[in-house]
Amino acid sequence: MRVLAGLLCTVTLACTVKANVEKTVFRGPGDLLLPHVHPRLDALRLGSLSHAHPVLPTQLPAHFPSRAAPRGLESWYLLQRLEAARRYEVRICWPATQPTDFWLDTFTVRDVFDTPGLVKSLTQYSEHHQQFHLSESEHYEPAQSATAQSVLLLRIQAAASYYSTNRTLMEHPEPVDVDITNAPVLDPFLLNILPQSLAPFAAYFTVVAIGAWFLSGYIFHWIDSVASEPLLKPHSD
Ligand SMILES: *[C@@H]1O[C@H](CO)[C@@H](O)[C@H](O)[C@H]1NC(C)=O
């Protein structure tokens, strides 16, 4: 009984910890000259992540899912100075005491400005953010550089996922404390040829294959020695 309780506890704990990280993997797009393509981007004053500032501690507004917004509130960030074609992973971590569902999506600047729904969400966020949420901890880096660079826009959707009898809280959930990080995905195997997700299987099959090779050699020698052994003792019947 105790063991079962312990096991259940471990399983629940593992799930809770897992629920506190959400991530998305993407590749850096081709370089683009921002001021030429979208002078408006800089005016949005989005918080940004780059290799010089890979971690962004901030507070994200969340809302309970509604029919109009089943994924709660949307926030936007700029992923700057990426390397074209390199794989990256954006993660969001938040405390278990603030149960929230997150969805992360990356879009190219062109995709966003060509899709009315995304432009609307982005400008709404920017206006609201500049009025109420521009915190000191958020790193702001002007995109107005003359050199071309690889950039993406990150959309985070946050829906509160708890229930409270407090009506104020149900209508206006508290903002969630999060850490947003962006880091290159390191592929140590075979110069990026083998996807990282397959690496454990590759290692497993290599070990099994080597084991099988030695085992078959051992069995062969054993059969060989048994076969060549003279029968010293005749059968009793
Ligand atoms: C309801 O939640 C709000 C916001 O967190 C808080 O200020 C208020 O004291 C709470 N009310 C009750 C009755 O607990």
From TrEMBL:
One matching Pfam family: Pga1
Keywords associated with the record: Membrane, Signal, Transmembrane, Transmembrane helix
GO cellular component: endoplasmic reticulum membrane; mannosyltransferase complex
GO biological process: GPI anchor biosynthetic process
Residues spanning the membrane: 201-223
Domain of life of the source: Eukaryota
GO molecular function annotations of the record: mannosyltransferase activity
Annotated signal peptide: 1-19
Upper lineage: Eukaryota, Fungi, Dikarya, Ascomycota, Pezizomycotina
Protein name per the record: Uncharacterized protein
Entries under InterPro entries matching the protein: GPI_ManTrfase_II_coact_Pga1 (IPR019433)
Keyword Signal: yes
